[in-house]
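FIELD: query
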Amino acid sequence: MLRIRHIDLKQVVSVTTDGANAMVGKDQGAVTRMKENNPDLIAYHCLIHQTVLCASLSEHFAEVMNTVMKLINFLRASSSLQHCLLREFLEDVEANANDLLSHNNVRWLSKGNALGRFWSIRKEIAAFLKQLKSQRATQFSLFLQEEHKMDVVAFLVDITSHLNELNLKLQGKNSSVADLMTAVRSFHRKLDIFKEDLEGECEHFPKLQEQIRGERDVSPYVDFINKLIGNFSQRFDSFCLGQQLLLLIQNPFLIREIKGFSQEASQTYKWAHAGSLQLELIDLQANAELREHFEATDPATFWLQLVSESVFPGLTKVALHTLTMFGSTYSLEVAEDHKSLSQVKVPALW
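FIELD: result
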C-alpha cells in the first residue's frame, strides 16, 4: 500500500495498530517488516482498543452481562410479532422507553447503551415476560427475580456508563494523541475515586445505590475497580509519549520540568538533541507574543502556523511529529463502516 501511494517508509513517524498478529507479529507482522526499513518507527496499540481490553469482565460478571444481552435478543429478534407486542405493552404502561436497544457484541459503547435502556424499563420487562408462556420467557423471568444478579446488572450499568464516557472522548473528532492520553490518564485517576465511593455512599454508582441500598456486600465491585486500576497502569504507564512531551502540544508554557521534557523527547525521537530543546523551550516560554497567540488559538494552528521553524527548529519538529500521530484506529474504522454502508444496495421504494 505504501509503495502504491508513493510513501517513503522512512518518512513515516508512527503506526497505530489494533494489536492483531498480522500487524504486530514478531517475525512477519507488518510493524516488524516496516521497522526493517525504518528502525525509528514508533508503533503502539490503539488507545480505544486498550481501554476496552482493560475492562474485561470476570466469569460471573460476563455471565450476567451475556444473559441480559440474550434476554434483549429474545424480546427483539426471536419474533417480529413478539417485538411488536413488547413495544405496544411498553407504550400502554407508559414506560420510560418504548423499546429495548439492539447491541453490537464487539463494542462496549453499544453494550453499555443497551444495558442502560434495559435497566430503565426492567420492571416493565419483568411484567411482560410473565405474560409469555414459553420456557425461555420463564427462565428470563426467574433471572430478573435473582437480587444478587440484579445487583451485578446495576453495577454494570454504572461502570459501563463511565467507560462509555471515556470511549466517546477518545472518539472525538480532530483529537490529537495528547488529547486522548489526557482523557485516559484522567480516567485512571477517577478510578481511585470510584473505588472509595463504592465503599462509601456510591454517589458515582446511582443504579447500584438504588439497588442495594447499603444492605449488601460491595467487595466484588471494589475488586473489579482494583483490577481496572491495575490494567490501566500496565497498559498506559509506559506509553511511548511521556506527560511532559504531550504537554508540549497541549500547552508548552506550562512545562516546568525542562530537563525532563528534553529527556522524554530525545528518548522518543532519536534525532532530537536534548540540549537544544531545553534552550528553545526557555526562549519560547519567554516570548510574550507567542504566549498570547497560543491562548487565542488551537495547538495545531499554533505549531503549524505561528511558531517559526527557523527560530525553534527542534521544538517545531518534535511538535509536528507528535501531531501526526494517530491515537487510535477509530477514524479508519469509521471510514470503513461508511464504505461498507455505501456499498449496500437499497431496494427501490417506488
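FIELD: remark
The mean pLDDT is 87.
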